[in-house]
Amino acid sequence: MARARRCGGAVLGRVAVVLCIVCLVTATWGGAYSAFTSATQATATFTSGTVSLTDDDSTSTLFSVANLAPGATGTKCIKVTYGGSIAAAVRVYGAGYTSTNALGAYLNLSVEEGSGATFAGSGPSSCPGFTPSSTLYAATLDDFGATKTSYASGVGSFAPTAANQMMVYRFTYTLDPSAPEGTQSGSAAVAFTWTATNT
């Protein structure tokens, strides 16, 4: 019985030693492991486009008219140039509209798009060289000031696709010959505003 116990102990001892050796070899092999590798890459860079508008009025007032009488009329052109790098849609609308004594309700307004004229060479009653392509608006200043108040409600078909493309706008006003006496000493003002939005 004593020999059986020693023999069993010896067997167990050998198994234990073998296991320790296997663990040692595995740890050593894992620490020295390396592999062949290969890599490739593609770089991506991004820049945003621009939307830009200028006009040729040199900060002058489009119209500044005093002492209007029924039937009085005037015309002025303004050239708007696109300076952006991406396609856009341009519209014109009114900002800050005011009117007293209902004058705006009797001021008829026409807005046209076209080419061939400049701000400096136009007015007070003509735009030399202007060639119209479309009529954008023909109603009263009062209606324009009340309904064309933002880009969304503005008018225009100018759709530039690159810098240095331009559109000329001709504005014509006429005080209705039937304007009532109540419009005397009245005033009306609006800031015609062009906005471009990328498409």
Number of domains: 1
> Which regions are unreliable across 5 or more consecutive residues at pLDDT < 50?
1-29
Overall pLDDT, averaged?
Answer: 87
Strand arrangement in the largest pleated sheet: 1-2-6-4-5
* Rg (CA only): 40 Å
How many strand segments?
7
Strand content: 25-35%
Could you give the order of the helices and strands? HEEEEEHEE
Which structural class should the secondary elements be placed in? alpha+beta
In short:
The chain has 199 residues and is α+β, with helices and mostly antiparallel strands.
General description of the model:
The protein is 19% helix and 34% strand. The chain has 2 helices and 7 strands. It has helices at residues 2-31, 141-147; strands spanning 53-55, 73-82, 88-100, 107-115, 131-140, 166-175, 187-198.
Index terms:
34% strand; five-stranded antiparallel beta sheet; alpha+beta; 199 residues; two-stranded antiparallel ribbon; single chain; 2 helices
Blueprint (SSEs and pairs):
Blueprint: H1 2-31, E1 53-55, E2 73-82, E3 88-100, E4 107-115, E5 131-140, H2 141-147, E6 166-175, E7 187-198
Antiparallel strand pairs: 1-2, 2-6, 3-7, 4-5, 4-6
